[in-house]
Design goal:
It comes from Vigna angularis var. angularis. It holds the Pfam family Methyltransf_7. InterPro entries: MeTrfase_7, MeTrfase_capping, SAM-dependent_MTases_sf. This is Jasmonate O-methyltransferase. By secondary structure, this protein is an alpha/beta fold. It has a single domain (about 5-370), classed as Vaccinia Virus protein VP39 (Rossmann fold). The protein has helices spanning about 5, 25-30, 35-45, 65-85, 100-120, 180-205, 225-245, 250-255, 265-275, 310-330, 335-355, and strands spanning about 50-55, 90-95, 125-135, 145-150, 205-215, 280-290, 360-370. Helix 10 packs antiparallel against helix 11 (about 335-355). The longest helix is centred in the middle third of the chain and has 25 residues, at about 180-205. The protein is globular and about 70 Å long. The two termini are about 40 Å apart. Bound molecules: S-adenosylmethionine (SAM). S-adenosylmethionine binds near residues 22, 29, 60, 100 and 323.
Length: about 375
């Protein structure tokens, strides 16, 4: 599987789109707001840029895409009022893999900018948006051209499925029964990818530039613990049930592997320290329920989505469908998709009625060293 070609969230604004099924990710963005505020405030006050360049890496397409940029701009405008500074101009770069639905983002830009102008008393500085298609596991921007890099729920995606995981029988990601060579292969791939990411961003950020990165990760140090694996283990259960009923072949499941690694905070820290270009200002681990409707309150987002509570199994299955459907279709074909997600929904509903099910978020605030 060529990840850069196959991996993208479901586009558009339909029932299975990422735009309509990304409330968990929205919740995570709202949880990490204080860290971004701290970062943009210290960055602005220490560098006073006249032209502020912000990049959101793995921006996807939907209500979350422009939310972080709007929040950062509002914070800088508040600081400018307080310090009696003229507003800077803003250059916002939205990056994702080429399969991302950039058209949908571009269509919403005019109304987004108009809304932002009216929300900030006195207006905002000029804003220029650009789409930057390409992998963040490579150079995406010119030398020292960025002040602030943000990425949420994207860096757990690897650049490729690790090599040597053919014996991960019955699993589609790491799981309790994964052999040790498979666990090692996933961790090695994460280390290689994240270190390339850090090297590239170190070249692209100005000195003193900040990065706020949130990974879908884990609290537990064991990479095969439920923290990061359970959601995929239950999808594997749905696929394995279909194998036992002869609907799909065992080899098809055995050769399907999710290109993801959900790191712990210490694994993230270790890579940053090894690479050496960034100081670590903050590390936090938080959690969010699989069914974000469980504990959602709509304080930060004006979204009609927050009004419906809905069915937990359905919500979580739709969230995972928006993320994984293109990969599943590319491997298994279109025909089995409805069946997989209908079984997955039932399995999820059953587990969620019996145990506490949460995603874990690892967030780091880093500064580019001098
Ligand atoms: C779960 S979405 C998160 C989107 C958004 N940041 C949010 O919080 O709602 C992950 C995004 O990361 C993107 N992504 C994964 N690997 C990437 C890579 N190597 N380069 C750029 N984007 C990548 C995916 O295409 C996807 O749109």
């Amino acid at each position: 599987m060529e990840v850069a070609q196959v991996l993208h969230m479901n586009g558009g604004v339909g029932d299975a789109s990422y735009a309509n099924n990304s409330l968990v990710q929205q919740k995570v963005i709202s949880l990490t707001k204080p860290i971004r505020e701290e970062a943009i405030t210290s960055l602005y006050c220490s560098t006073l840029p006249r032209s502020l360049a912000i990049a959101d890496l793995g921006c996807s397409s939907g209500p979350n895409t422009l939310f972080v940029a709007s929040e950062l701009i509002k914070t800088v405008e508040k600081l400018c009022r307080k310090l009696k500074h003229k507003s800077p101009e803003y250059r916002v770069f939205l990056n994702d893999l080429p399969g991302n639905d950039f058209n949908n983002i571009f269509k919403s830009l005019d109304s987004f900018k108009m809304k932002l102008q009216t929300e900030v008393a006195g207006g905002i500085g000029p804003c220029y948006f650009s789409g930057v298609p390409g992998s963040f596991y490579g150079r995406a921007f010119p030398n020292q051209s960025l002040h602030f890099v943000h990425s949420s729920y994207s860096l757990q995606w690897l650049s490729k499925v690790p090599e040597g995981v053919d014996n991960n029988k019955g699993n589609i990601y790491l799981g309790r029964t994964s052999p040790s060579n498979v666990v090692r292969a996933y961790y090695d791939q994460f280390q290689r990818d994240f270190s390339v990411f850090l090297k590239c961003r170190a070249e692209e950020l100005v000195q003193g530039g900040r990065m706020v990165l949130t990974f879908l990760g884990r609290r537990n140090e064991d990479p095969c613990s439920k923290d990061g694996c359970y959601i995929w283990e239950l999808m594997a259960n749905a696929l394995n049930d279909m194998v036992s009923q002869g609907i799909i072949k065992e080899e098809q499941v055995d050769s399907f592997n999710i290109p993801q690694y959900t790191p712990s905070a210490s694994e993230v820290k270790l890579e940053v320290l090894k690479e050496g270009s960034f100081a670590i200002n903050r590390v936090e681990v938080s959690e969010v329920n699989w069914n974000a409707f469980d504990d959602w309150n709509a304080l930060d987002f004006e979204s009609e989505r927050s009004e419906s509570i809905g069915d937990g199994g359905y919500n979580v299955a739709q969230c995972m469908r928006a993320v994984a459907e293109p990969m599943l279709v590319s491997h298994f074909g279109e025909d089995i998709i409805e069946e997989v997600f209908s079984r997955y929904q039932q399995i999820l509903a059953d587990r969620m009625s019996k145990e506490k099910t949460q995603f874990f978020n690892v967030t780091v605030l880093l500064s580019r060293k001098d």
